[in-house]
Amino acid sequence: MVRTGSGGLSREIDALVEISRAIASGLYLEDVLRLIVTVTANVMDSKICSLWILDEKEGRLKLKATQSMSEAYLKERSLALGEGVVGTVALHNRPMAILNVLESPLFKEKELARRERLVSMLSVPMCIEQRVIGVINCYTSYPHPFSKTEREILSAVAQQAAICIENAGLMETLDMDEILRLVLEGATKNIGFDRARLYLVDEKRNILECKMAVGMDAEEIKGITLPLNREDSLIARSIFERKPFVTADAKRDPRVNPGLRERLRLHSLVVIPLLAKQKALGAIAADFAEAGKTITSEAIDSMMVLAQEAGEMVE
User: Fold this and answer.
1) Contact status, residue 211 vs residue 200, Cβ threshold 8 Å
2) Alpha-carbon distance 43 to 14, whole Å?
3) Is residue 278 assigned to a domain?
4) What does pTM read for this prediction?
5) How far apart are CA 259 and CA 270, in angstroms?
6) Domain that holds residue 112
7) Rounded distance, CA 132 to CA 7, Å?
8) Is 311 helix (H, G, I), strand (E, B) or coil?
9) Could you tell me the sign of the dihedral formed by the alpha carbons of 14, 19, 24, 26, in that order?
10) Distance of alpha carbon 35 from the chain centroid
11) 158 lies in the same domain as 183
12) β-strand pairing of 195-202 with 269-276
């Protein structure tokens, strides 16, 4: 599976050097992790390479980076420590190779594997001084017994990725998630909205993604994506124009995305952009589940304060 032939070994060395340079470059951690999985997928000739981080407080591993462009694979998800291949590798701090994931009782995401045509898998823990902080995986689209060289290469990548994550303090961003959740809960518990959602701009995919939601239907809402197009939704319009928008009747407002309107059964809605140093990072949206409720100017002012706090956290 590792690319061979003239210059084969130097290709692997070059890949590790490229990863090392990225770690030292001062790039945002998200960009470094994406580069790591992209370079790794290339040198290992993998269909998908993915990187999972252990949330020690929750005891769950969360998908943080992949070079895959598949919407199904990019969907935010997590596995408990000890659950599935990824959770087992993290729990026991041992690599694992599987010839056919569909035949492995340990592999949990068989439907996803069928859709993405994933067959063989190599999973390696990422460690700092024997403390597991995550797992990196490579998948092929055909049966492949992983060689000792391939295991060593992925282990070397995993070690560099672990150093990168530890140095950048990725584990601390989990605390940021908790703070952002408190900000959103301010919209529901303090201001009185039934639901609140945090949308962030993904410039590379040209979309808005709902990264967090609280209140009614929170789990169903999280992960919703919208085109990053001013004319597509009130949320995108708020981001492009860098100003709040309020609608008293989302069902009749043509600026509201029709798919989102039907899926969330929207009535009155407020959207506030997230700004940091004049850059629009995303937006907070909040609404009432019942028709006829009025969004007051005081509620809008309070939402703008929350959005400012969230913008500072995200930036």
Assistant:
1) yes
2) 10
3) yes
4) 0.53
5) 17
6) 8-168
7) 33
8) helix
9) positive
10) 15
11) no
12) unpaired
